[in-house]
Amino acid sequence: MIVFDGFGWRFGGSATWALRHVALRIDRGEFVAVAGASGSGKSTLALAMCGLLIGRHAGDVEGSASVDGRDVAATPLHELSESIGLVQQNPELQFATVTVADEIAFGLENRCRPADEIRRRCAETMDLLSISHLADRTLTTLSGGEQQRVAVATIVAAQPQAIVLDEPTASLDPAASRDVFGMLADLCRRTGLTVVIIEHKLTQLLSHRPRLIALSDGRVVHDARADATTATPSVVWGPSKTDVPIVRAVTHSGQPLVELSDVTVELAGKPVLQSARLTLRPGEVTAVLGPNGGGKSTLLHCMMGLVEPTSGRISVCGMERPSLSASRLARDVALVFQNADHQLVADSVEREVTFACRTFGLLDASAERRADELVRRATLSDRTADHPFRLSWGQKRRLNLISVLLHRPRLLLLDEPFAGQDWQNALFVLELVKAAVDGWTESSVDSCDRSGAGACVMVTHDPRVVARACSRVLFVCQGRIVLDAPLPDAFDRLREMGHDAYVPDTYR
Amino acid sequence: MRYSPGQTLMHRLHPVVKLVWLIGLSVGVFLLSPPIVPALMAAGLVALLWSAKVPPWRIPGLRVWLMLVVAIFAVQVAFTRGGEPLLGPVTTEGAAAGGRAAGRLLVVVLASTLFVITTEPFSLSCALMNLGLPYRWGFALVTALRWAPRFRFEAHHVYRAQLARGVAYETFGPRRWWLILRHLCFPLLVSAMRAAHALSLSMEGRAFGLHRERTYLRQVAIGRRDIVAAALLAALVLAAVLLS
């Protein structure tokens, strides 16, 4: 079905090969997971097999790749798309119409199929993917999991032989991720469709026994049938990985860094956070779990002064409303957003790292030394003069983090820092969290508590990180903090509440 | 102001018929000079908006528009001379000119509001494509209409993200605008290009542009009420031409 024969690809202007000596044969009806660190060539492989690489990007090619007997380099895209389709990471960006039924019909309409046939195939596809009840819904009102199902349906409706998905669960909560993987495995089993999933998060995927292909530096380094009990290759963040640092600093008894009492936030008249109560003390590393759209990000934004509560009291690092403004709080509190592009403000990596210190008048020789050290640890030393937007996604995430930490804030708020990240990037994040929570060696910020210890609140969907790096869990659902418990008790409580997907395998 | 779903007569009217009415009213109110014309049109539009479940006090942005209407009236009254004096410096000519200008603005605003609130954007594009608009243009319109709210949301998100970096957007005056220009525009541009790239891959991967024509699942049919509405407009235009 999909054959790579000594395939290699080097992007124009790059000295290194993104893919090299790739020899793969994926047969009809196979369920395949492709894993590997950031920059290992996974997404390039997906583009190559869908005919979106050769001829569309400048670069050198070696060997050959074919799909359904057709050479991807010589076949027009519309012809190749009869055999294979790609679902990109963010489904919302791929939609061309407004409602679910229109979107599924889109490809068939472009192929000039008669309206009756389109109607029949749309109905069959929606039935197959259990989304018939969504037919008339507006796409923007769907949940992340529902959007992924619709994105898959838009490809499946054209009845191709294979479908490729690039990190389909990168921004989904564990319950929705489990649902999407189950749907794809079921689709493969029932229809004989070849399913290729590019993915970092393998824990849930492995239970469907995929063929696991691992890439490293553009080469295939592992290719075998896998399941949840199989040892995962070292290039992949697998369930057997145990080198996540245990952060869990001792909770200090000092002044709380954050106090929320009965905080309610409403947007357009609808409550997005209701009666939130929370006290965070130095030394705590708190994980915020919960389904997408439940109010997790709003909780972080409240602590950063970005969202005005409708009622209740908020105190962060000794500041209360109305003096609680984001740009003033930024000195003591660091918030890293989920989208790496949004927080970039300077025109070079070096200026990006020192931006906050310059803004707050804290840039001295010591800060410059620390900046060099952070840049080195983020392996960005050779990119300091580059524009931040020229970096890869993983590099930007590391840059985001070090640029909010240089001035040593006391409270670290991280919104899904591990989404779409490989384990090396995740380890880097956790090392810096540990440094912030332990208290920086020479504290330059002294406005909260004299102990110097900090605290971290992270919204995350990775139960393994929570198990090893956090001391406390908040579960936020439908705008309410429905669970606030220390670990490991929190996992027992989550299981009792029926939220198994948020509990790591080792605790089940 | 945005589309508000509903099943009223105005919602069910063919989008192109509504578009032609919007154009007809907007042009007509400028071509026809009797002061009664804008008054009648405005009254009719208010009634139609009410029938579409938008009573006058819930017309989006009404207060701002009314302030603008009053301001235009006042300017015309103050600067137009001629006719009989009415009150102080106000003349009959000035009052008539003010009434006309204010009425015209009000009609255009009410007609546009009625159109936007009762017309689903995708339905308008489909109707135009059904009637022969090249589908590439039709989808360009769909994309623009879909992305406008998306980028408003994105801009808001980037703004917040940068506030959290310590960019002092909370200041006022020219400095705030300079900061917005300097820090906000580039991430938004990058985001727009990323979105355009993802969408073009997705559309091309689903054979968009393969043929000169394409078929449509959604057919926006022209019904009896649409013919009546179009005929009514034609009759009004004819009457206006004959009377003037």
The share of residues in helices of chain A is 25-40%
The major beta sheet of chain A can be summarized as: 6 strands, mixed
Q: What profile does the largest beta sheet of chain B have?
A: 2 strands, antiparallel
The spatial strand order of the largest sheet of chain A comes to 6-7-8-3-9-10
Using the alpha-carbon principal axes, give the shape of chain B: flat
Number of β-strand runs of chain A: 20
Termini gap of chain A? 38 Å
CATH top level assignment of the largest domain in chain A: Alpha Beta
Q: Characterize the quaternary organization of these chains.
A: heterodimer
* H-E string of chain B: HHHHEEHHHHH
Q: What is the radius of gyration of chain B?
A: 23 Å
Strand proportion of chain A:
15-25%
Taking pLDDT < 50 over at least 5 consecutive residues as the criterion, the unreliable ranges of chain B are none
Largest interface between protein chains, with number of residues from each side: A-B, 59 and 47 residues
The mean pLDDT of chain B is 87
- Taking strands numbered 1, 2, ... along the chain, how are they ordered across the largest sheet of chain B? 1-2
Shape of chain A: globular
